[in-house]
Amino acid sequence: MEAKQYVEEIQKKIHENDRGQVEYLQAVDEFLPTVEVFLKENPAFVESNILGVLIEPERILQFRVPWQDDQGNWQVNRGYRVQYNSAIGPYKGGLRFHPSVNLSVMKFLAFEQIFKNSLTGLPIGGGKGGSDFDPKGKSDAEVMRFCQSFMTELQKHIGPSTDVPAGDIGVGAREIGYLYGMYKRLRNYDAGVLTGKPLGYWGSEARTEATGYGCVYFVKHLLNDLNDSFKGKKVVVSGSGNVSIYAMEKAKELGASVLTCSDSNGFIYDPNGIDVELVKELKEKNRERISKYVETHSDATYYDGQSVWDFEVAYDIALPCATQNEINEKQAEILVKNGGKIVAEGANMPCTLDAVEVLDKAGVLYCPGKAANAGGVAVSALEMSQNSERLSWSFEKVDGMLDDIMKNIYETCRDTANKYDAANNFVLGANIAGFEKVARAMLSQGLV
Ligand code: GLU
User: Where is each Glutamate/phenylalanine/leucine/valine/L-tryptophan dehydrogenase C-terminal domain found (predicted)?
Assistant: First the structure.
């Protein structure tokens, strides 16, 4: 069968089977058409029905998570773990606690994670999990009871060499601590079952910074190719969580001026450059809303209920670091008008497919999340290595390795795109390179 027809058939079938799973189908629709050129050159993979097999998650777990709130009422949430692909290593990927979590969101994230993890060059398969539990507004005790209940079920399905969860939106050091503590009580086994652990017990230096720093390193290497740098660049960032904070910190350190950041209520524009230390204090320490920023910074403006992507201001680089589908077609047009030349995704799938099309047409260099935000999971894999050898490496060592990994991911995306006559198409480059490694592993293991 022709590669084109094969891809179309797979796409049609997945749309029929998973109707209504909007985010998941979006991720699949972004991926499938880009690997057609590879399959054309490698018909053996078409013959072995690689896509038909790969597209089916190896295992999906859904479970009930009952927990008691501070008033003594029983609450219940849904828990998930999607173990999508283990061809190149144990399932690896974060846990997301957010009310928007559903099966479609879990599957899109796990699907992207397969190729992201493959691109890191480290032996990690793709998985993702989480719950529709909302940690916002909950007491520490409620979060603890929820995490303990969640882990009571999850522990049956994970392990240091089978499936290694970590953090994502709504899951930071506090949650990982509670989850890890419960795993240890239930299994009497330690260390490498979760990553993103606090530094005092088995955590890795630079893991907190890794996703944000990594995203900026990716762009740094891209700029370097253009004989350019972050110096003097104006950067617009969305979000104010873990990814956003460290993307802002590194961009500033490299000489850029960061103009904005946001949370789900609104955004801050600070013409003097965002005060990252203050954002850290507000968000990481006090769990406050970003609107508080303007109380101490009178030059800054808070735009309540508005998206940073509707804002008209001149800039060079956009780093969407909030969540999926935060930039739509219209907002991509605004981004182009604002002068944006590079978009690098700190979040997973923050641009809709229509938005990406607008960026492509305008010649904006678009760096998809599965490449640009792979630094977090890459350092997670380094945390696994450190846990295995019962050692911890210095910040400088891990940060240096992260920079090297991001350089390698950038070059792989660039070179793969060039190889298929699609210069600057980093989506195609990331998808084919990530896919090829997994596909070859599946073939050699007799899985297709
Ligand atoms: N949640 C992060 C991601 O989207 C990191 C996952 C991990 O460290 O395992 O890649």
Answer: 204-446
94 lines ligand 1 (CB under 6 A): yes
Residue 3 CA to ligand 1 center (angstroms) comes to 32
Q: How far apart are CA 134 and CA 100, in angstroms?
A: 9
242 lines ligand 1 (CB under 6 A): no
Mean pLDDT of 180-208: 93
Residue 72: per-residue pLDDT: 98
Burial (CB count <10 Å: 0-12, 13-18, 19+), residue 301? middle
Whole-angstrom distance, CA of residue 267 vs CA of residue 56: 39
**Is there an atom of ligand 1 within 6 Å of 131 CB?**
no
Q: Which of 128, 197, 283, 341 is catalytic?
A: 128
Q: Whole-model pTM above 0.90?
A: yes
Distance 93 CA to ligand 1 centre (A): 5
What value does the mean pLDDT take over residues 97-125? 98
263 and 239 in contact (C-beta within 8 Å)?
A: yes
* Residue 337 annotated as catalytic: no
Please check whether residue 189 is in contact with residue 116, taking contact to mean a CB–CB distance below 8 angstroms. Answer: no
Predicted confidence band at 189 (pLDDT cuts at 50, 70, 90)? Answer: confident
Q: Is the pLDDT of residue 190 over 80?
A: no
